[in-house]
Amino acid sequence: MISVSNDASAYLYTIELVENVKKDSAQKVAFKNILAEGEESVPLTYPSLTLNVTQPTVALKAGIFKRIPKLVQRIKNHPNYNDSIGKDLGIIGAESTFDRNTLKPQISGALDAHRPLIKWKKGVADSIDIYVDRNDGKGFVFLANDSTPDYIDTFPLPSGEKDTAIWSYKGIFRLHDEQVGEFSNIVNITVTRQVAV
Fold first, then answer.
1. At what angle do helices 2-37 and 64-77 cross, to 10 degrees?
2. Which domain of life is it from (predicted)?
3. Average pLDDT score over the chain
């Protein structure tokens, strides 16, 4: 069906656009930080302003995820419909076997251009709420809701007397706009202030 194909093209473009903007933003923030606090001997070039996304030429109409279930229901209500047709069309979903009360994100940490990078897998969740403890006496506080793995923390790096600090992160999944399951394990990341020489 052409309308479904058009909807898919438009939505895939949107997902790709969001991914590119997130990566582009992270690169620009990293460039800004290196420009501000990096080694003076490191030559820099301005980052590109273009995004590598090709915009589809299909007509746009809002409400993709409102239309698709209606179309699926019309197909399933047709007198000639059977499970074989449903499997061929991919409209018979697998039975849900997860327990929302025991969902628990598995997160890990790394550094990306000196910035803490929180790695996580989406699975059945819509997004993850990430919390951070910066060892400032405030304990864990909400940092961000992230719907596309992975997340880069762009909070200013330590300054003052301490050149390094350990920041701790944990997350909890969101499903249909509410937190579900359990908090992840806690991940500790050592961050280092960039000292100008």
1. 150
2. Bacteria
3. 85
pTM over 0.90? The answer is no
Q: Could you give the strand order of the β-sheet that contains 107-112, starting from the edge strand earlier in sequence?
A: 107-112, 115-120, 151-152
Rg (CA), the chain: 22
Architecture (CATH level 2) of domain 100-192: Sandwich (2.60)
Structure tokens at 120: 């996580």
Q: How far apart are CA 51 and CA 68, in angstroms?
A: 29
For the chain, the structural domain boundaries read 2-89, 100-192
- Tokens 């590119």 correspond to 20
Phi, psi at 164, each rounded to 5°: -130, 160
Distance CA 127, CA 35 (A): 32
Q: What pLDDT digit, counting tens, does each position of 50-65 carry?
A: 666 777 887 777 888 8
- Please say if the pLDDT value at position 196 is more than 60: no
Contact in structure between 30 and 115 (CB atoms under 8 Å): yes
